[in-house]
Amino acid sequence: MPRKSTLRWEIPSGLKFDLTALESKSEEDFDTRTLKGHIDFLMFQALKAVSSRADRTQMPLEEFWSLVQTEFQSLSETYPPSIKQSAEDEIKVLSEESWKALKEERLRNGIEHHRREYENGRSLGLAILSPKLLPGGEPPMKLRAVTLSFDYNLLYREKMFSLAQDILTEDFLLNEQSNPILTEILDNVVSGAPLYDFSVAEMFELYGELVNHLPEGKKKQKLNSWIGGKDFKRKVEVNLLGNSFTAEYHAYSKNGYSATAKPVPLPFAVRNTMAHQEASNPNVALLRNNPHGVHDSVVILRAIKSHYFGGV
After folding, report:
1. Which of 33, 111, 150, 155 could bridge 84 with an S-S bond, Cβ 3.0-4.6 Å?
2. 93: part of which helix (H) or strand (E)?
3. Could you tell me where the beta strands, DSSP code E, fall in the chain?
4. What is the pLDDT of residues 198-232, one digit of tens each?
5. Bridge partners, residue 126, by sequence
6. Any residues with CB less than 8 A from the CB of 213 and at least 6 apart, and which?
């Protein structure tokens, strides 16, 4: 499913422009293929336009500068940037012999680390995947236990785990909320598990494809309709690891969460709970009570796509 890019640009705050220096330039002096060149050129044009209408020497500098800024804002809305940028990097290419030597060195280090860990009494690579920094008070995110095979790859899996924690830390500092898809992907990358099949990512993608175009109040109704279709449950239930197509869910409204939980389609409950894991959400418990919830939600959504739309 195609996704929109989140790439965006902003003018850095606190920029200062030297009006005298701008006045001495010509249009050929600006490289408008860069954001800085584009912004400087628009400011140059704004200065030129205001100077043609007002005498800078006959008014306070602040008033003149305000007119230039207003003109610049108008130009920036009319002429968006067309930015071109290239990237270069130097990648070291190893000879076949050097590559082999590196692999052999890593193998020796991995074997030695494995042996030391064994002698120190360890028998499992177990760690908690989370950001390295969190705000005080109750943890605002669900922590995730990651198991790493206890073999000669453990040393490098542990290095990957630390890098994964760094990524979660930076993501949390930017967004200040948990990202269950990112956490699961990093868990799978670090542990060497498959990235996609029956994952949170696949569940969100299928859910979005099937019902995200529907009004919020219609999603649960449509899922119920599909699940209740002729022969659907009989065909699908053999593939479920749990024992139900539904989960007990506390509905949310402007007044908060309802005190009484009612059965709703499993994908609806799991998806919405995964997306809103704040401590005040009573539905977080259903993730613990349905350890196969993500897997079974994917099974159900895959079956809906196949049964009703001929998808795979």
Report:
1. 33
2. none
3. 125-129, 144-148, 246-249, 252-253, 256-257, 262-265
4. 888 899 999 999 999 999 889 999 999 999 998 99
5. 147
6. none
